[in-house]
């Protein structure tokens, strides 16, 4: 036989169809997030028509099976659909609905037409169009301004942003950071532009180019110019007291929204106030109280306005020196109460001042009374008057509600205030002037006198250039409203019985009678039994109350479950309530790092995650897996590979629970190396689940250990394919025996070992042994052992030859040993028989036998005049 004919037959052999079914796909496919997409897949068979009894169809996305069809029926994932009627025409295309970023990847279409099969893959690319929005605000003409453009909800990450002015690109560099990932997998980014506008009718555009759209997306706005505020800070001291009132005045700004913050020595001391009355001036007040010791401070007013690149800060330095001859001092709590109500005062002040219809009218506000007494048993009442062309005179009158003759009248001048400090009533008055008009804020500070049970009429009289107006309220000195700690209104503690003890403390109220009730539920509340309630008289001759109830901790496992406490007192117009849910509990679960043991191929590994400090043992713990190189997470369920033992729960001395969740994995170097496991813990008390990650797993040991055989003319070839990770020395030994007890080791000289680095940090060793053929029907055992540096003991496989057939012995018994690939030839030295040559001295290949040892390798050969060998190409 000629060499040319041999090669022709070989090529013909390779070109012959390997399957009776041929699958065709169209890849890649592209779609937008939220849409539906068709993944085309068709097939044809050699001998139509299609018989559905021999047909099976599978669609898979990674390890997720989306569709399965065979002669028993069809099952599909909820996200996909197919037209089953098209199967008989060879159309098995898959429709994917409501596409998300996590759906991006490779889909496999597998068609089996028994006994043949073929699969093809379709790559799906998902895109999301960006949402572009410029923050529209007023700019300062001829000054530097910052404009921001937010680009959100786009995918993939690459994006180009261009700023335009009246249609022309701006060469000015922009500030844009790296895009940030959203929870749904899309991206967001902000681009900022610094610009100095000079012209009118200026159009600014933010243009975004993204592969999801064929044309750029723009947002634009026509610039409007604003005016920044003029800021002035001034203060006045309240005589005879360690108090000072600071006023931050803002004038002439446009547009209207503005924010004012106060700082003392650089530290924030009051939440921001915002004017919402449509006017263009604003004042913000702040009161400060000094201790008895000498004290100094820097008081700053910080103003934010949309025309400003950075806030305007005005600071005033003040010093206070104590005066031991002062007869009395205003308590700190009163000052704090005043501070807490200043926002309301300012809102009322500017509502009346700047409304045009009030500009020419003298206006008096109602008397404002805080709802809470201070710890020093003092309360402050406020009244304000506005738009007087001259300085306003103030008079306070306090009289018994039932007796008109017993009157007390106090003027609002500084001289009169000095004589009031030793009495039950203290008057403070602050004057201001805006746009030529006089304003006044006046306060009467009242000390609770529980020995005087009579109600009082309190009158505030204002005199403006001969015009008099007044406001009146009735005050009951014995009627003191209950106070509550606002930071922790309901205290919680755990009981030995497993209940939660809820308690509330109400303080400084009068008279004694008070009603406190407890209830619980989800939406609809049911009354609870009060466990304990105590009302006591405190040293200030006021009353305190403590109420408790107990409730099972298990009820808090229900989402939305709340406990409510309600109280009603004579001093209150309406009852008040406070609620607590699991989200308010002081016990917060803490999740520790996942304990990862050594990960050895084919061995079990136990991952452990400990959650401590929880008030209940009813936690929702789930394990997820992330495949190497992917972002999607897959829920781990019990299977042959995974075991999920029951959580180990222990109760600690502080009555909280510690739970240990475990995941037992049968490790595979092929699939687990580079993968990641996530332990996620949820409970109604958490705003969002807690989680810990293992990071990418590092599996070591033997990834592949396969044994094959091949019949040859003079011998049988046994082959061991060993692949290990990480790269390390591989030691393989072969031995034989006529029984399973005593083995004789083959010398290395009789073995053929070939090492290779096949990438990914994996070493491969192909070890071959030529077993002599036996004429007699003797049973013979062969053992191949693999020893690694990272392994304490070797891994072994036992092969038995019976009647010329080879089998492998494992736990399941004996199974036929698969054949490996080998090529034999009559050829040059090294071949067993003398070669046949042509007239040109070429060797003749008399026999070719090919089979597959590994689907990743295609075996070919090379034959030359001086050699005959096998080579493997990937």
Summarize the structure.
With 874 residues, this protein is mainly beta. It contains four helices and 65 strands.
Outline the fold blueprint.
Blueprint: H1 3-15, E1 21-25, E2 29-32, E3 37-39, E4 41-45, E5 55-61, E6 64-70, E7 73-76, E8 80-81, E9 94-96, E10 105-113, E11 116-127, E12 131-134, E13 145-154, E14 160-165, E15 168-169, E16 175-176, E17 180-181, E18 187-195, E19 203-209, E20 217-222, E21 230-238, E22 243-251, E23 259-264, E24 267-274, E25 282-289, E26 295-304, E27 312-320, H2 332-354, E28 363-364, E29 378-388, E30 393-400, E31 407-411, H3 414-417, E32 425-434, E33 437-447, E34 456-464, E35 467-475, E36 483-484, E37 490-494, E38 499-509, E39 515-522, E40 524-528, E41 532-537, E42 543-552, E43 562-568, E44 576-581, E45 590-591, E46 604-614, E47 620-626, E48 633-635, E49 642-643, E50 648-651, E51 657-666, H4 669-672, E52 676-682, E53 690-693, E54 701-711, E55 715-725, E56 730-737, E57 744-745, E58 751-757, E59 763-772, E60 780-788, E61 795-802, E62 805-810, E63 813-816, E64 858-864, E65 867-873
Overview of the molecule:
Helix content is 5%, strand content 50%. It has a 6-stranded mixed β-sheet with strand order 2-11-10-5-6-7, with no helix packed on it. A 6-stranded antiparallel β-sheet has the order 57-56-60-61-62-63, with no helix packed on it. Strands 12, 13, 16, 17 and 18 form a 5-stranded antiparallel β-sheet that branches. It starts with a helix and ends with a strand.
């Amino acid at each position: 036989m000629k060499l040319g004919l041999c090669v022709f037959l070989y090529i013909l052999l390779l070109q012959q169809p390997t399957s009776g079914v041929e699958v065709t796909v169209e890849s890649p496919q592209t779609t937008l997030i939220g849409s539906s997409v068709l993944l085309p897949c068709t097939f044809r068979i050699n001998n139509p028509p299609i018989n559905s009894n021999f047909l099976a169809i599978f669609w898979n996305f990674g390890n997720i099976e989306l569709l399965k069809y065979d002669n028993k029926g069809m099952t599909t994932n909820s996200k996909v659909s197919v037209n089953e009627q098209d199967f008989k025409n060879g159309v098995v295309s898959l429709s994917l609905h409501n596409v998300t970023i996590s759906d991006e990847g490779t889909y496999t279409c597998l068609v089996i037409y028994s006994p043949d099969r073929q699969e093809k893959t379709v790559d799906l690319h998902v895109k999301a169009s960006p949402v572009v929005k410029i923050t529209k605000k007023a700019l300062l003409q001829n000054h530097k301004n910052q404009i921001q453009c937010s680009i959100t909800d786009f995918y993939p990450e690459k994006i180009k942003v261009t700023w335009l002015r009246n249609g022309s690109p701006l060469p000015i560099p922009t500030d844009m950071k790296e895009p940030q990932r959203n929870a749904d997998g899309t991206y967001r980014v902000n681009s900022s532009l610094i610009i100095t506008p000079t012209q009118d009718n200026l159009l600014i555009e933010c243009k975004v180019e993204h592969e999801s759209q064929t044309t750029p997306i723009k947002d634009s706005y026509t610039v409007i110019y604003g005016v920044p505020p003029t800021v002035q800070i001034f203060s006045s001291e309240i005589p005879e007291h360690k108090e000072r009132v600071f006023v931050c005045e803002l004038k002439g700004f446009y547009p209207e929204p503005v924010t004012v913050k106060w700082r003392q020595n650089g530290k924030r001391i009051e939440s921001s106030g915002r004017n919402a009355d449509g006017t263009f001036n604003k004042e913000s007040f702040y009161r400060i109280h000094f201790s008895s010791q000498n004290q100094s401070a820097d008081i700053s007013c910080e103003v934010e306005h949309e025309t400003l690149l950075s806030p305007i800060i005005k600071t005033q330095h003040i010093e206070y020196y104590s005066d031991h001859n002062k007869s009395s001092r205003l308590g700190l709590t009163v000052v704090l109460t005043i501070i807490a109500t200043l926002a309301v005062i300012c809102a009322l002040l500017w509502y009346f001042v700047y409304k045009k219809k009030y500009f020419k009218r003298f206006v008096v506000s109602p008397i404002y009374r805080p709802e809470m007494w201070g710890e020093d048993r003092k309360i402050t009442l406020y009244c304000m008057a506005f738009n007087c062309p001259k300085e306003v005179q103030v008079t306070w009158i306090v009289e018994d509600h039932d007796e008109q003759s017993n009157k007390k009248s106090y003027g609002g001048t500084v001289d009169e205030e000095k004589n009031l400090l030793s009495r039950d009533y203290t008057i403070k008055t602050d004057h201001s002037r805006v746009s030529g008009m006089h304003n006044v804020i006046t306060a009467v500070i009242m000390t609770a006198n529980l020995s005087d049970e009579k109600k009082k009429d309190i009158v505030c009289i204002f005199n403006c250039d001969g015009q008099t107006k007044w406001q009146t309220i009735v005050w009951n000195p014995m009627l003191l409203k209950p106070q509550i700690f606002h930071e922790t209104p309901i205290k919680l503690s755990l009981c030995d019985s497993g209940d939660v003890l809820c308690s509330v403390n109400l303080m400084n109220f009068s008279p004694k009678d008070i009603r406190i009730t407890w209830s619980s539920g989800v939406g609809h509340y049911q009354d609870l039994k009060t466990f304990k309630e105590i009302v006591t008289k405190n040293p200030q001759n006021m009353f305190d109350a403590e109420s408790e109830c107990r409730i099972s901790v298990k009820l808090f496992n229900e989402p939305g479950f709340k406990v409510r406490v309600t109280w009603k007192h004579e001093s209150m117009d309406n009852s008040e309530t406070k609620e607590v849910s699991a989200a308010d509990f002081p016990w917060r679960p803490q999740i520790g790092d996942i304990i990862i043991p050594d990960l050895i191929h084919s061995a079990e590994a136990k991952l452990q995650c400990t959650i401590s400090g929880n008030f209940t043992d009813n936690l929702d713990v789930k394990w997820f897996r992330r495949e190497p190189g992917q972002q999607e997470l897959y829920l781990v369920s019990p299977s042959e590979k995974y075991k999920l033992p029951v959580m180990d729960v222990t109760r600690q001395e502080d009555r909280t629970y510690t739970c240990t969740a475990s995941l037992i994995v049968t490790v595979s170097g092929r699939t687990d190396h580079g993968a990641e496991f996530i332990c996620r813990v949820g409970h109604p008390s958490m705003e969002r689940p807690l989680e810990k990650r293992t990071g990418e797993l590092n599996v070591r040991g033997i990834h592949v250990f396969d044994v094959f055989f091949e019949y040859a003319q003079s011998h049988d070839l046994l082959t061991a394919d060993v692949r290990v990770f990480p790269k390390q020395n591989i030691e393989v030994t072969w031995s034989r025996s006529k029984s399973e007890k005593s083995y004789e080791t083959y010398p290395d000289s009789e073995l053929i070992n070939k090492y290779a680095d096949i990438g990914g940090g994996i070493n491969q060793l192909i070890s071959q042994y030529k077993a002599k053929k036996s004429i007699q029907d003797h049973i013979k055992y062969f053992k191949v052992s693999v020893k690694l540096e990272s392994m304490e003991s070797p891994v072994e496989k036992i092969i038995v030859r019976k009647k010329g057939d080879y089998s492998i012995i494992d736990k399941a018994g004996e199974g036929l040993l698969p054949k490996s690939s080998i090529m034999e030839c009559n050829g040059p030295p090294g071949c067993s028989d003398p070669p046949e040559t042509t007239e040109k001295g070429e060797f003749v290949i008399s026999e070719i036998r090919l089979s597959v040892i590994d689907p990743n390798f295609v075996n070919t050969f090379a034959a030359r005049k001086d050699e005959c060998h096998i080579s493997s190409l990937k």
